[in-house]
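Help!! Second protein's tokens look totally different from the first
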Amino acid sequence: MAGWRERLARRLAPKAQGEQQEVHALYRMLLGKTPTARNTAELIAAYKQVPQFRSVVAKIADHVASVHWRLYAVRSKSGKAKHVRTGQIIERDERKKELARYKRQGELEEVQDHPFARMLDIANDEHSGFEARRLTQIYLDVVGESFWNLQRGAFNQPTAYWPLPPHWIRQTPSLNKQHYEIKISGRSFFSPVEDMLWFRDLDPVEPYGRGSGLGESLGDEIDTTDYAAKYVKAFFYNRAKPDMMVGIEGASPEEIKRTAEGFRQQHLGYNRAHRAYFHGGKMDVKELNSRFDELKIVELQGSLRDAFVHTFGIPPEVLGILTNSNRSTVREALRFFASETVVPRCERLRLKQQQRLIPMYDERLILEYDSPVPEDDEFELNAMKAAPHYATRGEWREMQGLEHRGEIDDIHYVPVNLIPQSPTSAAVVELSTGPAVVREPILLTQHKDDDQVLVNRVLEDLRPERMKDEMYALHRHNMQEWGDEVLDELGVAVGFDLINPLTAEFFDNWENNKIKLINETTRNNLNRTLIEGVRAGEGIPDLSKRVTSVFDLAKGYRAERIARTEVLGASNHATYAAHKISGVVQQRQWVATYDGNARDEHERLGIADPVGLDEPFVVDNYSAMYPGEFGAPEMDINCRCTTVAVIGEPKEAKALGEVWKIYDRRLVPWENAMRAAAKRAFDTQRREVNAAVRRVFA
């Protein structure tokens, strides 16, 4: 029977266009059907056993795994994520320029609370992200390939990945078998193609087969290093071989024993070294051992080490080999290692994940990593010295390792001899003929600007994360329970999943918009009263009283309104997400507040026809998927409405009233807890802002 290569060659004869597409598919799949290379396990074992080999591979893997990864989205002014080509740009500098441009335009947003972002930190239940990336890079450098087995959660999206040793993968997919064969401890398992991510350094001999790593090209060097180490070990164990053999012709066993004992008595011990031994009779001496320095073992090991270092592209200084090195060469060696060894490996990992893994979530996401190349501080300092007026005071402070203090440091040192001039002609100055007192408003304006700078420094300590820290865990706990109860009521035997894309988007919006809006209101109130106090000449005690007054009001009506509005939106989102997860809900019905305090628009929604599961509720010029999601204060604040799933016929008004009463009662404990959380956050912010008042105005 002809081998697959012969069959493939016959299939590659000129064909019609449709048949050619089939040939291309066969070409890819047949060449992909490749078993594990015979020496894969041995090479990986060599990583454990050969120290010079391990030190080089581990150094690269440690640096690659230490790189910090980030997930971005580019959003339009309306807040919607946009499709951009940035993630698919292979050339790193061009990609960085694109990201910088979006950042300048205020469109680039880092996505943090996302399943993939969490996988970057925690790969699975056993491995951190660092450990999994380190293991992946070790496999790639040693044998040229690594595999991730994807673990999926709700919405069929990956929530974890498990790095697998390449020698566990017994077979890659073929034309007739669309799966990977995994063999562990004698048992075979099968994983579909879509659940595996295959990182591969292509083998030029078999570019459609298994990977080929740098470790394979060092097979002889690895073996030689191992043999040299074993030889040295055997040398000191002496292999039961004496250093010399002494023969005494015609001597009896007793005479030999007596002679040997006399020799030991006269020569054994450091204080008897180099003594001559005299005896009668014919003696023959044969030296059997070689001198250790004649074996050149040290030179051999150094040569083998250099082979590993040069093959993997690591400057010796990175491994602590500082012969003939100085501070400058060490610094440049680290930069070279990062840019020429670490960065290309990061690019390979990034591209594979961007093309294969990111589309499983959202193609609009962009995966990027922080540059591992250290900054050239000496070059930057020389550049700043050449034109010191281009750098701000804050940049000079940061160069010295000092803190940037905000707007007060955003000024430039300009020499007095630098006077702006027109490139064509001198400016004509009109002399004022009015009284000198007209200059007073200019001085007053300058003082007002200084007051605002001081107040802004105080308000830098008004941190929105204080509100988030108090509310986030509370929201997640209650939304989990709420979603589970909704699913139980629907009779669905699945649990509510907080990492589904809907809820992840909800928390992104909550953190980036709602929490910021709460903080912005507090900031405006503080700014207004502090400016009044500063311009009135008040001291620290009076300014602190103003701060306390703002937060006392916030802990009253504002905390009540925040709790009600936030819980309303979160509970209704959990209901909507549970309806989506259930798989049994097709329509939903608006349930308006039943105590006579509903908005007119909400009452009209309550008597309108049900809407589809993926359709918004629309009234006038407003639309929302659920109550609290209109994005307009006049439609969301203090709202008490909810929704109910339509299973069969829509509910009548009386039944809707009962639904609303149950809903309203269930909100009370959540609202009370949220109100207390808001008060705690306001208390923390009050203490921090008052501390800033004492520091700035001292």
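Here's the second one for comparison:
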Amino acid sequence: MTSDPQASTTMSNHNQEPFANLSADDIDNQLSEIESLCMNCHEQGQTRLLLTRIPFYKEVILSSFTCPFCHFTNNDIQPANRFEPYGISITVYVQNAKDLNRQFVRSGYGSIAIAELGFEQPCNKESGTLTTIEGFLDSVIDNIMKTVKQVEQTIDGLNHDEQQTKENPKEHVTDSVNHDDSPEFEEQKTKLLAFVQRLTAMKNLEEKFHFEL
């Protein structure tokens, strides 16, 4: 959503290797900052770039965009070297807190699956992810709860329209969503909450599971 992070930029420290090992003590000297167009409000925001080497992985470009006008933010991670012709599959059997805290880098071409749930999140070619297994579970739970909230709003709207129809049948205009659909939305909400309950149990280590990247 920002300008190409691989575009040429002026490094803060010209004597530094382009891809240095990540160090908290020297992170300010490794950062580059460029102005970028915000795709949300079309004002000028700022992208901070960090070219770094992740141990046991590869060289990557970390980017963080912020807009001071609309407060839109976007974080991304992109590989800095060529793609391998074939991918690999990594499976972790999550049994304890140490497993939950395992950090992983997922490129835009990586998918994630949890066999016990019959769950798979397909690749997203627009951006990569740097997080932990627990962090991933949190993000899935947050996204599902947002959907639950939308379903609840739809149910409330249907119930309100149904009540209005009973009170003023002549004045009521039929909505594009039929009142008879309310039970289906209730069922959808129940299934989503049951799924969140399973995810929460896995996050709390009440249920062991296989995490496949």
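Reply: Different proteins will give different token patterns, so don't panic. The chain has a mean pLDDT of 80.
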